[in-house]
């Protein structure tokens, strides 16, 4: 290739990139009325990421999630935003710390072989996993009533969260393509999935078939618990090490939830469960 042709080719590539970038970058929104326009932009981005017909249809049918929008519009209303002791944080959702710990111990005992198998494979103790499971969904008792796709897309659209959670919105559409969820499947208000309330992007990255039935399903407890352990291990969890506040394993909990209140409460509860 001659220098002139090479230069012309480089100009064409740069120009093409400059033209493509605006079409693929969805802009965040500050009012509910902009949600439809955001979805149109996100659809281009999702299509470029490989989302197919079913996922794009789910996006088209998604509606702005009122509960998600209220949470993001008033972050001070979220318990994780105000400093609380671990005891206070747990009692915001359970009648007492003792109630939470006794329930966790009961679940740990009922599923002893499963937790032992997971710890052997991933190095994450059952006390940590059962504490997260209990706090997130009351051990599977309530996994949410918000449409997952609508919640994930609403969260991604909001300027305070954009673009941090846009990958999770696209991942939710990919899960629709795979048949794991539908546009009507329900979960947490920010698009969280199943027993452990995974963000869709984390499920795509770390999903494990814990019960070996050929399908990794966030609504199956064994799959969800194994996936949680896999996620923590791949983010640096060290088997047999302390998870006390300030330890390396404690810091890994931030990859699960970046609230210091949450991290302290899970580590504190897990310590009591181990007693």
From TrEMBL:
A Pfam family recorded for this sequence: SLT_2
Signal peptide positions on this chain: 1-25
Biological process (GO), any one: peptidoglycan catabolic process
InterPro entries in the record: Lysozyme-like_dom_sf, MltB-like, SLT_2
GO molecular function, one term: peptidoglycan lytic transglycosylase activity
Keyword set, alphabetical order: Signal
Transglycosylase SLT domain boundaries: 35-242
Entry-linked PANTHER family: LYTIC MUREIN TRANSGLYCOSYLASE (PTHR30163:SF8), MEMBRANE-BOUND LYTIC MUREIN TRANSGLYCOSYLASE B (PTHR30163)
Protein name: Transglycosylase SLT domain-containing protein
């Amino acid at each position: 290739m001659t220098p002139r042709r090479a230069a012309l080719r480089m100009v064409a590539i740069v120009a093409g990139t400059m033209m493509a970038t605006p079409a693929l970058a969805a802009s965040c929104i500050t009012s509910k009325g902009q949600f439809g326009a955001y979805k149109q932009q996100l659809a281009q981005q999702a299509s470029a990421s490989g989302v197919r017909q079913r996922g794009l249809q789910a996006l088209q049918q998604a509606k702005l999630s009122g509960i998600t929008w209220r949470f993001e519009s008033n972050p001070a209303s979220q318990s994780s935003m105000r400093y609380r002791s671990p005891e206070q944080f747990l009692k915001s959702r359970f009648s007492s710390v003792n109630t939470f710990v006794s329930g966790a111990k009961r679940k740990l005992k009922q599923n002893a072989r499963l937790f032992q198998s997971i710890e052997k494979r991933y190095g994450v103790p059952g006390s940590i996993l059962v504490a997260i499971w209990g706090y997130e969904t009351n051990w599977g008792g309530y996994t949410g009533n918000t449409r997952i796709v609508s919640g994930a897309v609403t969260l991604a659209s909001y300027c305070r969260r954009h673009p941090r959670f846009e990958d999770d919105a696209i991942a939710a559409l990919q899960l629709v393509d795979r048949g794991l969820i539908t546009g009507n499947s329900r979960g947490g208000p920010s698009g969280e999935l199943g027993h452990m309330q995974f963000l869709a992007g984390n499920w795509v990255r770390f999903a494990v078939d814990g019960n070996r039935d050929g399908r990794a399903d966030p609504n199956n407890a064994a799959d969800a618990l194994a996936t949680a352990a896999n996620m923590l291990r791949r983010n640096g969890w060290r088997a047999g090490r302390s998870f006390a506040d300030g330890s390396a394993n404690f810091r890994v909990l931030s990859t699960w939830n970046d609230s210091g209140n949450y991290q302290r409460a899970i580590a504190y509860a897990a310590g009591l469960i181990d007693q």
